[in-house]
TrEMBL record:
One protein family per Pfam: PhyH
Superkingdom assignment: Bacteria
Record PANTHER family: ECTOINE DIOXYGENASE, PHYTANOYL-COA DIOXYGENASE DOMAIN CONTAINING 1
Organism: Pigmentiphaga soli
The protein, known as: Phytanoyl-CoA dioxygenase family protein
GO MF, one annotated term: dioxygenase activity
Cofactor(s) demanded: Fe(2+)
Annotated transmembrane regions: none
UniProtKB keywords: Dioxygenase, Oxidoreductase
Record-linked InterPro entries: Phytyl_CoA_dOase-like
Length: 272
């Protein structure tokens, strides 16, 4: 792994604060991203199911290399530049579309669902494959993090990768920005930034792992939950520690993955 620190410049922080996103940044080399993809596909083979629709909410519990990636200095330094030194990872989700896959992600703001005491949270979306306009990369609406939460409806559909089908009712797509990434690169977006992605029209999979970070001061407004400290110290103890995977598909962690994903699909992460 590339181990050096990668604090953002003042200009990059200003861009994130003004527009609610920043892209592209580099976490690992294309070869390392290829290796992550292969390791993920080995896990999918063991599970007998795709990451999409299962490695959700706390995907990082599936393997130690995922918890290592969540703590990667290049990603953590970038997030620290906007959120400060003491960081928790509240969760992570694979967004994995197959080649020529009609599945999409509807326009939504994570803030409408995450149940946090303040909207101080940042997603780092790490590309394991090329994520392009053709393959259905993440699209953001610049500046949408600055206003009120937008009105969402739950429009559950078999092709929507969001199990609750959360969809912003009125969106002006004309100003949307496509965050194209090459394998090993990542983007950042704010918890209130409206975002979506379209179907994959390419001949390869489009796989990204989204990590959700927040400062340790932020609490859950949906009862006690768990998180993983990725940097600094936690003087607040608002969150219980996540179990740490000792191997691929560690049974203790798989039980937790099943529990949180089950809660989500049953509606535990409802509109705030
Ligand atoms: O990867 C995608 O298509 C959507 C990503 C997303 O919704 C997120 O990172 O919160």
């Amino acid at each position: 792994m590339l181990m050096e620190d990668a604090a953002l410049t003042a200009g990059q922080v200003a861009h994130f604060n003004d527009h609610g996103y920043l892209t592209p940044l580099t976490a690992v080399s294309p070869a390392q991203a290829r290796e992550f993809r292969e390791r993920l596909e080995m896990i999918e083979a063991k599970l007998g199911r795709e990451a999409e629709g299962y490695l959700k909410i706390k995907a990082h519990l599936a393997s130690p290399w995922m918890t290592d990636l969540a703590r990667h200095p290049r990603i953590v330094s970038a997030v620290q530049s906007v959120l400060g030194p003491d960081l928790l990872l509240t969760g992570s989700s694979f967004f994995a579309k197959n080649a020529r896959d009609p599945r999409f992600v509807s326009w939504h703001q994570d803030a409408a669902y995450f149940g946090l005491s303040e909207n101080a949270q940042v997603t780092a979306w790490v590309a394991f494959t090329p994520s392009t306009v053709q393959s259905g990369c993440v699209r953001v609406l610049p500046g949408s993090h600055l206003g009120e939460n937008m009105r969402h409806e739950e429009r559950i559909s078999k092709d929507n990768l969001l199990a609750r089908g959360q969809t912003i009712v009125d969106i002006d797509e004309s100003r949307a920005v496509s965050m194209e990434l090459q394998p090993g690169q990542f983007s950042l977006h704010h918890v209130k930034t409206a975002h979506c992605s379209h179907a994959n029209q390419s001949d390869d999979r489009r796989i990204g792992l989204a990590f959700f970070y927040m400062p340790t001061r932020v609490a859950s407004i949906r009862g006690r939950r768990s998180a993983m400290l990725v940097s600094g110290v936690d003087e607040y103890n608002h969150w219980d520690p996540d179990p740490m995977p000792r191997c691929d598909l560690d049974p203790v962690c798989v039980a937790e993955l099943d529990r949180v994903w089950g809660n989500y699909t049953k509606g535990a992460y409802r509109l705030t």
